[in-house]
Write a structure and sequence with these properties.
The strands form three sheets. A seven-stranded mixed beta sheet has the order 12-11-7-10-9-8-15. The protein is α/β, with parallel strands linked by helices and 389 residues long. The mean pLDDT is 97. Bound molecules: nicotinamide-adenine-dinucleotide. Nicotinamide-adenine-dinucleotide binds next to helix 1.
């Protein structure tokens, strides 16, 4: 069995999602050879996932000849620099979403980056990605974009139908919403490059672009992203502190709700919603309307396991789904979450790509176009215009 050796960068929330999912990759011997992180959580992480080498520094990990592929699971502002260094060191790269963003200039205060001109941000992000594109192309190594929505089994099943019927996707609706993150970094543009759109909306937005590009391949057409409009705001501004008691987000210079419309070169559309003020548990939803079919690859909530409870205190330690505010009454249990959300399929694809040299489903083009669309949406919202790409 071919062995693939991975170096993990980061030991936080998403690194655990990757760690759990690597265990489920089959047909290949995946070795988590090394890890580096700047937090002490790295020791527990290495122990939990049986990783023999812990490096104090990213550059040390890159010098390890055993590491074939570097899995970058760090905060977004570090992604581009780390991707470049890893490719230049001759490694294949996996990069978590978002590929990049605008995080301000040196010396910017924590709470002011989001006030900067979105046109300036859009242009800076495109420059940065164009520069990275050159490095990716020159490297001859694989760039694999960790966009798990692409690999959700329900989305891949939709694609199987689309391949068979060769229909035209007319409209895609996509959403990722929940009641918000209380994490300090989530409140500030400086750390995430935006608010709920880039943190959550990036998932359905990338999935929509991916589906249209797949449609183009199936039908032998050229389809590209043509224009973007965005409308967003801070909906919780109208609430008192008491009224916000079930909402976790407390945005400082970012949006807590976003609506984005993508228009493709064939005139079809995708309508994407992201929200940090939406109660009822995480909503990871897609709807795909073609000229002869409808698909609803619901990731969450889905109806795999409805349950009803009258005594929530007795099941307080039993996980139901992310961000659900109560366990009383009817609930949708999220079964096999790391599979249903696509993490396992994603790493299966990436490991096979490293082993065989084939291209990933979620690649640099998707990463690039997604970030371009997100910043076009921010620009559109600020200037009240449709942004032509
Ligand atoms: N696909 C998903 O569903 C999903 C979910 C959550 C987060 N993410 C993405 O994963 C990435 C990480 O998010 P997170 O929630 O795990 O954050 P986190 O804060 O929990 O973890 C970040 C990790 O990066 C490490 N780190 C920071 N600087 C470093 C450096 N210079 N060298 C090595 N390690 C360093 C930290 O030590 C920490 O372990 C982000 O890009 C985020 O958008 C994706």
């Amino acid at each position: 069995m071919k062995q693939v050796s991975v170096g993990i960068v980061g030991s936080g929330f998403a690194a655990a999602l990757h760690g759990d999912s690597y265990k489920k990759v089959c047909g290949l011997d995946v070795k988590l050879a090394a890890v580096t992180s700047v937090e002490d959580t790295v020791y527990g992480y290495a122990e939990k996932y049986g990783i023999p080498k812990i490096y104090k520094d990213f550059s040390e990990l890159l010098k390890d000849p055993e590491v074939e592929v570097v899995d970058i699971i760090t905060p977004p502002h570090l992604h581009v620099g780390m991707v470049k260094q890893a490719l230049e060191a001759g490694k294949h790269v996996i990069c978590e979403k978002p590929l990049t963003g605008y995080f301000g200039e040196k010396g910017d205060a924590e709470n002011t980056v989001g006030l900067r001109s979105k046109r300036e941000m859009y242009e800076a992000v495109i420059r940065q990605m164009d520069d990275l594109k050159e490095t990716v192309e020159k490297s001859g190594k694989l760039f694999m974009y960790a966009e798990n929505f692409v690999y959700a089994p329900s989305l891949q099943k939709t694609l199987e139908f689309l391949r068979a019927e060769k229909s035209k996707i007319l409209l895609i609706k996509g959403e990722e919403s929940h009641s918000g993150s209380h994490a300090h970094h989530a409140a500030y543009w400086k750390y995430n490059g935006g608010g709920t759109l880039i943190r959550q909306g990036c998932h359905p937005l990338s999935a929509a672009i991916y589906l249209k590009y797949q449609e183009a391949a199936i039908r032998g057409e050229e389809i590209s992203l043509k224009s973007v409009t965005g409308d967003m705001g801070v909906l919780q501004k109208c609430l008192t502190e008491e009224e916000k008691k079930y909402i976790d987000s407390r945005p400082v210079d970012v949006e807590d709700q976003a609506n984005v419309v993508l228009t493709f070169s064939d005139g079809t559309k995708a309508s994407i919603t992201a929200g940090d003020v939406i109660l009822g548990g995480v909503r990871n939803l897609m709807e795909i309307y073609t000229n002869e079919s409808v698909y609803q690859p619901n990731i969450a909530p889905n109806s795999a396991m409805p349950v009803y409870h009258m005594s929530p205190e007795k099941i307080s330690d039993v996980y139901i789904t992310e961000k659900v505010e109560t366990k009383t009454g009817w609930q949708h249990v999220f079964v096999d979450e790391e599979i249903a959300r696509g993490y396992v399929g994603e790493l299966q694809d990436f490991m096979e790509c490293v082993a065989t040299g084939r291209k990933p489903q979620s690649d640099f083009r998707l990463a690039y176009d997604s970030i371009k669309a997100i910043y076009a949406a921010y620009l559109s919202n600020e200037e009240g215009i449709r942004v032509e790409l």
